[in-house]
Amino acid sequence: MEGFYLENTPLYEALVNNFEPRPRPRSGATGTPSMVVSVRIRPFLDQDVTAGFPCASYPRTNQAGVLDIHDLYHHPKGRPVLKSYSYQVDNLFGPETTEQEIYNSHMDDLVSLARNGGCGTIFAYGQTGSGKTYTISRLEQLVVESLVEKGASEERQVFLTIIELAGNQGYDLLSDRKPISLLDNAAGVTQLGAEEHVVQGRDEMMDAIERATSFRRTKPTLKNDASSRSHSICRFRILDTQSGTSGFLYLIDLAGSEAARDVAVHGPERMRETREINVSLSALKDCMRGKAKYDALASTTSESGTDGKQKKPPYLPFRQSALTRVLKHALDPSVDGSKTRTMVIACVNPGLADVPMTRNTLSYAEMLCGTTPSPVVTTVASSRVISSVNASKRR
Ligand SMILES: Nc1ncnc2c1ncn2[C@@H]1O[C@H](COP(=O)(O)OP(=O)(O)OP(=O)(O)O)[C@@H](O)[C@H]1O
């Protein structure tokens, strides 16, 4: 398939350059107050087979948050056709966007919320190699800078816990990767089971984060030589020493999903690992989808359906995986709703060969936004485009 893309890159490039986007009606992509959904497209790297031309066009003039993803298809009559899919989310971060800009967009609010007794959560999800670890690790550093700047050590005390979840097994990355047990307390809330470390000052926090990173399990995938085959959860607990209340900030780097054709080359152990990752990602998706629905329901003025009956809140299956059990505290929309906020970053690869996985990632992002999917636009290469591509090949 990659051969087909490579062979037709000049045609693809010409079709994308001539693409005329259809205006999208503004649908629910303004984000529910408690969840903001962003997309980050990573820059091209040497390992991108189809490097040379991006599969996405954005931003659209006057349509913030809308991007078009283009794919090339064999046409039964021989001439390839371009299929373009548009997606609408709250924020778009292109390859040129810095982590500081991402931080400024919403993270700062999450830090303030956590400093004031609330719970802020940021997730990065997406295909393997799409930049989740890169993004989250830099955001962790910016959180540290911000906590130090806002006076972490005076009226606020910071406790750090960093764990890794591989399947249903957890490891404490700040205690030499010691296995941990996830236990429920008397109120039925799952505890991380890892030690909390009091961290003071910039250097101590940075050292702890670096130490945890060195204990993270990585394995090569077809897309990433050092792929994190586990989820990492970094939790800052910020204690207000005057009032005695604590706020929480979770930064979550999820294990990357792999395309079915890439998984096919795995042995039995990697297959099991992939299955476990998929089960936990799917449980998280169900909970996030339920949360998005719950928030949408809560934001409607009337909670009654047209028949006058009370609408039933969606079921959120937190107990389906270790990942969702430990995150219940951060995601449960029925608990202290005004004090929890989530930022989701859907990370995508920029290349044509990854379009199917990119579309999966973006469809999910749209669903969390409550956006109505838009129809696909098909462009057939005109004779003029074909002649100009052939002429440039001859030169
Ligand atoms: N914004 C970026 N700028 C420059 N390089 C980047 C960027 N994002 C990612 N990379 C590089 O891309 C490669 C893959 O990134 P990363 O390991 O963060 O992906 P991932 O989504 O966490 O993958 P996995 O799910 O396999 O762990 C790394 O070499 C990383 O340095």
Automatic annotation (TrEMBL):
<dbReference type="InterPro" id="IPR001752">
    <property type="entry name" value="Kinesin_motor_dom"/>
</dbReference>
<protein>
    <recommendedName>
        <fullName>Kinesin motor domain-containing protein</fullName>
    </recommendedName>
</protein>
<dbReference type="Pfam" id="PF00225">
    <property type="entry name" value="Kinesin"/>
</dbReference>
<keyword id="KW-0067">ATP-binding</keyword>
<keyword id="KW-0547">Nucleotide-binding</keyword>
<dbReference type="GO" id="GO:0007018">
    <property type="term" value="P:microtubule-based movement"/>
</dbReference>
<feature type="binding site">
    <location>
        <begin position="126"/>
        <end position="133"/>
    </location>
    <ligand>
        <name>ATP</name>
    </ligand>
</feature>
<dbReference type="InterPro" id="IPR027640">
    <property type="entry name" value="Kinesin-like_fam"/>
</dbReference>
<dbReference type="GO" id="GO:0051231">
    <property type="term" value="P:spindle elongation"/>
</dbReference>
<comment type="similarity">
    <text>Belongs to the TRAFAC class myosin-kinesin ATPase superfamily. Kinesin family.</text>
</comment>
<dbReference type="GO" id="GO:0008017">
    <property type="term" value="F:microtubule binding"/>
</dbReference>
<dbReference type="GO" id="GO:0003777">
    <property type="term" value="F:microtubule motor activity"/>
</dbReference>
<dbReference type="GO" id="GO:0007052">
    <property type="term" value="P:mitotic spindle organization"/>
</dbReference>
<feature type="domain" description="Kinesin motor">
    <location>
        <begin position="34"/>
        <end position="371"/>
    </location>
</feature>
<dbReference type="GO" id="GO:0005875">
    <property type="term" value="C:microtubule associated complex"/>
</dbReference>
<keyword id="KW-0505">Motor protein</keyword>
<dbReference type="InterPro" id="IPR036961">
    <property type="entry name" value="Kinesin_motor_dom_sf"/>
</dbReference>
<dbReference type="InterPro" id="IPR027417">
    <property type="entry name" value="P-loop_NTPase"/>
</dbReference>
<dbReference type="GO" id="GO:0005524">
    <property type="term" value="F:ATP binding"/>
</dbReference>
